[in-house]
Design goal:
Blueprint: H1 2-9, H2 14-22, H3 28-38, H4 42-53, H5 55-61, H6 75-91, H7 104-129, H8 143-147, E1 155-160, E2 165-170, E3 177-180, H9 185-202, H10 210-231
Antiparallel strand pairs: 1-2, 2-3
Helix pairs in contact: 3-4, 6-7, 9-10
């Protein structure tokens, strides 16, 4: 995921980044998280899921990040703020659309210029990270940051891949819990499709909903019930 993020940083527009994502499986983040789970690293699995979920949005917003809290840190910091703002503004502008008459030399010069901007921008970001309190500037959140979201109650994550189907229970300031579900990816996909079809056909104030009842019962037994039974330990 980090390599993909770095690769996408080298592209010049949001549309280009979306095109890059088309070349990768839409289950990349889930597969990476599943791999981390099988290696016994639940915290990293959660981080990978979050990073994959927000990768396009992160690329868009990192060039527009306000640095107001750095204004009182001295002249060197003020210089970094200006450099970051100037470089981000340049990178945020998509290159001009090339006409057919545009020479290959001009295109290559544009690409070289853009890569140099990215290198300079990364250098400024590294300098900002050396400032106290900014060591995680524009980096994906750590698990400790994500776990704070469970302050009002445990968070449940479903990680369904071709390798395994698991849920992670994330309590606040307690160890994580992994539950291996008694269901495989293919069956889960079938249930999801069956649920959508049943909702379209039977949802509403009706007395008889056999298809909807059947699929909800299967989801309860194989996905929801194992989680509910384990939530008692976090009460």
């Amino acid at each position: 995921m980090q390599i993909l993020d770095a690769y996408m940083s080298m592209t010049a527009s949001v549309s280009s980044r979306h095109n890059i994502m088309k070349d990768f499986s839409n289950t990349l983040a889930v597969d990476a998280a599943s791999c981390a789970l099988r290696s016994g690293d639940m915290c990293h699995a959660v981080e990978l899921l979050e990073q994959g979920r927000t990768i396009i949005w992160t690329q868009m917003t990192r060039l527009r990040t306000p640095l107001d809290s750095l204004q009182t840190r001295g002249d060197h910091t003020a210089t970094l703020m200006k450099e970051f703002g100037d470089l981000s503004s340049l990178l945020d502008k998509s290159p001009a659309n090339y006409l057919e008459a545009t020479t290959r030399i001009n295109v290559e010069a544009e690409e070289t210029w853009y890569r140099r901007l990215v290198k300079d921008w990364n250098g400024v970001v590294e300098e900002i990270r050396k400032i106290e309190g900014f060591s995680r500037f524009l980096l994906p959140p750590l698990f400790s940051d994500l776990q704070d979201a469970a302050h009002d109650g445990p968070i449940i994550l479903l990680i369904a891949s071709k390798s395994s189907c698991d849920t992670i229970i994330i309590p606040h300031k307690q160890p994580l819990s992994r539950i291996q579900l008694p269901i495989n990816f293919k069956t889960l996909q079938r249930l999801v499709l069956a649920l959508r079809e049943a909702i379209e056909k039977e949802a509403g104030p009706k007395g008889n909903q056999p298809a909807l009842t059947k699929v909800l019962r299967e989801l309860w037994e194989d996905v929801i019930r194992p989680v509910v039974e384990n939530l008692g330990g976090f009460a």
